[in-house]
Design goal:
The complex is a heterodimer of chains A (234) and B (173). Chain A is mainly β and 234 residues long. Chain A is 4% helix and 23% strand. In chain A, strands 2, 5, 10, 11 and 12 form a 5-stranded mixed beta sheet that branches. Chain A has a 4-stranded antiparallel beta sheet with strand order 4-3-8-9, with no helix packed on it. The relative contact order of chain A is 0.23. In chain B, β9 and β10 (155-157) form a beta hairpin. Chain B has 2 helices and 12 strands; from the N terminus they run ββββββββααββββ. Classes of the chains: A mainly beta (234), B mainly beta (173). Chains A and B meet through β1, α1, β3, β9 and β12 of A and β5, β7, α1 and β12 of B.
Chain lengths: 234, 173
């Protein structure tokens, strides 16, 4: 029986370490032992499949059951998901969550003194098309304080969860906005050692995605791990 | 060659995307040996991680309309996650090896810049003695962190210690 083709190891410095002293939450949660090597097996090279039939898309996060629009600056976020070999990742599920325009999450643990928007929950779900493209509509999230250090504020960001074709391609990340002065001060963003890898977490303003008289557009392209060698094709 | 996008923490507010039914992998009608897989996620002080997202993936039984193979559970105030699933059988390893029945487990949380991946094997399974991953963990005490123990009828328990004494073996996937 042929061994499954493994996925590439992550390129050096392009993923954050577990121990980021400036990010206080990592202090008691990072393992002290090195990760244990595991050659990829069928467990790592296969993964879940999500179909829109079971997991209905929620493409416009500004529309909700109340029928009233969410408050804030409406934006369009779009991009392409490819793998490290440059191939699109088709029909994969993308989960999205974020705070509202005032910097408050619709979540009981968020006690920031900023108003909730009853017309914005902050949850979305989209699927890429056959060419790995996705697009959704939301509100530009606000900045908010957090207790990591004195006068600490998270830059504006949107959370993303990606699955890709295999257990080994799972990715959770955050998308940031260009020109945000808080980026230079944020220990989570700066927890990624490689400057280029960090910059790729920042969406690009895109006039082609921008819809005239309606909403600004941002491009956020994502790369998931690719297989180390090209499998034989039929 | 493109380089994979960097990971960022899932943070404390991931519950916005939570659907608690995902913790039950039998919800679409899959039939087999039903089990509960549970345990607590604990930090370096032994304190519960009450805001974690725990995900499981198993390649056996094969994914079907009735069996998603994937589940997600939150952790409660005691750090406890809980899944209902079907007990996996052995799956092929690399070369001619066979892998003992196991479930892949990922912990995501505030304070984790990336997910931590481990596996839950089942105590008492004869194949554990020849499983390539278990055999590659030389220290028996560390190896034991990968093995769930029976905790009542059909219930398997494996605590996950992120740091310090009894630290779980995490895998470089």
């Amino acid at each position: 029986m042929n061994d499954p083709t493994p996925f590439r190891p992550y390129a050096q410095g392009t993923q954050p370490p577990y121990d980021v002293p400036e990010y206080r939450g990592t202090n008691k949660r990072h393992p002290k032992h090195a990760l244990h090597a595991l050659p990829h097996t069928v467990t790592e090279t296969t993964g879940p499949r999500f179909s829109p039939a079971h997991f209905p898309p929620a493409v416009d996060m500004t529309i909700n059951t109340s029928g009233k629009p969410a408050l804030g600056e409406r934006i369009i976020v779009a991009g392409t998901i490819t793998d490290e070999n440059g191939r699109p990742v088709p029909r994969t599920m993308v989960e999205i969550w974020q705070c509202n325009a005032t910097g408050r999450y619709d979540h009981p643990a968020d006690q920031h003194d900023a108003p909730l928007d009853p017309n914005f929950h902050g949850e979305g779900r989209v699927f890429t098309d056959d060419n790995g493209r996705y697009r959704f509509i939301t509100i530009r999230p606000g900045a908010y304080p957090w207790p990591n250090h004195k006068n600490a504020w998270r830059p504006n960001h949107i959370h993303f969860s990606y699955f890709g074709p295999a257990f080994a391609t799972r990715l959770i990340t955050q998308m940031y906005f260009p020109g945000d002065p808080l980026l230079a001060l944020d220990p989570i963003f700066n927890g990624v050692p490689d400057a280029h890898a960090r910059d790729r977490l920042i969406a690009q303003f895109d006039l082609d995605i921008t819809q005239p008289d309606w909403a600004l557009g941002y491009r956020f392209d994502v790369v998931l791990r690719g297989r180390a060698a090209t499998p034989m094709e039929e | 060659m493109a380089i994979a996008t960097a990971s960022q923490t899932i943070g404390p507010y991931w519950h916005l995307i939570e659907d608690s039914t995902w913790a039950d992998l039998t919800r679409f009608g899959a039939e087999g040996e039903n089990i509960t897989l549970t345990g607590a996620v604990l930090d370096g002080d032994g304190q519960p991680c009450a805001d974690a997202c725990v995900e499981i993936w198993q390649s056996d039984p094969p994914v079907s309309e009735k069996f998603p193979g994937f589940g997600r559970s939150n952790t409660d105030s005691k750090g406890v996650f809980r899944f209902t699933t079907l007990k996996p059988g052995p799956v092929p390893g690399r070369g001619n090896a066979q892998q003992a029945p196991h479930i892949a487990v990922t912990v995501l949380s505030r304070g984790l810049m990336r997910g931590l991946v481990t596996r839950a094997y089942f105590q008492g399974d004869k194949l554990n003695e020849t499983d390539p991953l278990l055999m590659s963990v030389e220290d028996p005490a560390r190896r034991a962190t990968l093995i769930a123990r029976p905790d009542g009828a059909g219930v398997w328990r494996m605590d996950i210690k992120l740091q310090g004494d009894g630290e779980t073996v995490f895998l470089d996937v």
